[in-house]
Amino acid sequence: MAESDGQERTEQATPKREQEAREKGQVPRSRELGTVAALLAAATGFMTMGESLMTALAEQMRRGLSLSREQVFDATAMPAHFLKAVVEALLTLMPFFALMVVVAIAASAVLGGWAFSALSFKWEKLDPIKGMGRVFAWRGLIEMLKGMAKFMLVSFAALLLLQAMGGEFLGLGRESLPQGLAHMGNLLLWAFLLLSATLLVVVLIDVPFQLWDHQRQLRMTKQEVRDEHKQTEGSPEVKGRIRRMQMEIAQRRMMAEVPKADVVVTNPSHYAVALRYDQSRGDAPVVVAKGADLIALKIRTVAQANDVPVLEAPPLARALYHSTELEQPIPVGLYRAVAMVLAYVYHLRQGPVYNREGVVNMPDLPIPDDLRRDE
């Protein structure tokens, strides 16, 4: 099917499109499945419950027709007597009716599940023009072909049954009335069951067709898929702006931790990593801030403004930057090098004079080969 903009519906429906269709009541349905299920359920119900139903109904009819002369001519008693007979008959047939209702509901929900919105009344369904359009559309042709197929199947099966059971039907006239009626009822039930079963051929064709047709109706153009993706995930521009805002917030939060650091290790200008060590807890030092280029410059600037020592140790700075995430402890392989840096910083702090604005160079530190980075 071609769209008005020239695009074809070549894409499978997305979960969102399927959910919207379900909310509108657009779900796969097979009327043939419901019809055949109801016919088979009726045949099975009559075969299992038929004898008891007929016996109970016959007894109720016998009681209902056993009236005295006074009851027949009593205008007030007859309506009550008739109503009582009707209620008793309905209660007797209730199990059969319940079976039919359950089968009808279950067969309707097998393909598309429950869609209560489909039960809502829609005025456009009363439009005669649209109705005629549906009749003469290709769906009307499909329905006509299905009707012809059902007629041919049932006719062919009926001919076969007459051939196979014709002798028994002709022999009913030689039987007594009660026996003949019982035998005829049994033959009719089997014929009804077999004729209904022949329609399973139509169901086996119609169910896959309805599933395919439902997916075909929900297909989308490439533009529709892109538009839906934008609606659900957001446009690239909005996502980019959100990502930038998140990065800015993270950077501000990270910069707020720099004044709490014990030392900042630099590359000297390419990388900067701020470390904090809590001696009371005895855990490994933690990276509270790190960055490259402009962020590294900002970390050094904040550190110097807040009297945090800045040490140039290029191998250690590169190793820390590439091996440790924010708020994570440093790897075991860097314990010794970082311990030397912290010891040096603590030693300077205990001295009589310490210029915190200066940058100390510590290039020679033990860095394991597996943690070394050239850049």
Q: What would you say this structure looks like, in words?
A:
The chain has 13 helices and five strands. It has 375 residues and is an alpha/beta fold. Mean pLDDT is 80; it is low at 353-357. The protein has helices at residues 15-23, 31-65, 69-72, 77-112, 128-136, 138-170, 177-198, 200-218, 222-233, 236-257, 294-305, 314-323, 335-350; strands spanning 263-266, 271-276, 286-292, 310-312, 359-361. Helix 2 (31-65) packs antiparallel against helix 4 (77-112) and helix 2 packs antiparallel against helix 7. 64% of the residues lie in helices and 6% in strands. The protein has a five-stranded mixed β-sheet, sandwiched between helices.
Beta-strand content: 5-15%
* Low-confidence parts: 353-357
Distance between the termini: 57 Å
Shape: elongated
What is the C-alpha radius of gyration, as a whole number of Å? 43 Å
Going by helix content, strand content and strand pairing, the class is alpha/beta
Number of strands: 5
Supply the number of helical segments: 13
What percentage of residues falls in helices of 4 or more residues? 55-70%
* SSE pattern, N- to C-terminal: HHHHHHHHHHEEEHEHHE
State the major sheet: 5 strands, mixed
Within the largest sheet, what's the order of strands? 3-2-1-4-5
Mean pLDDT: 80
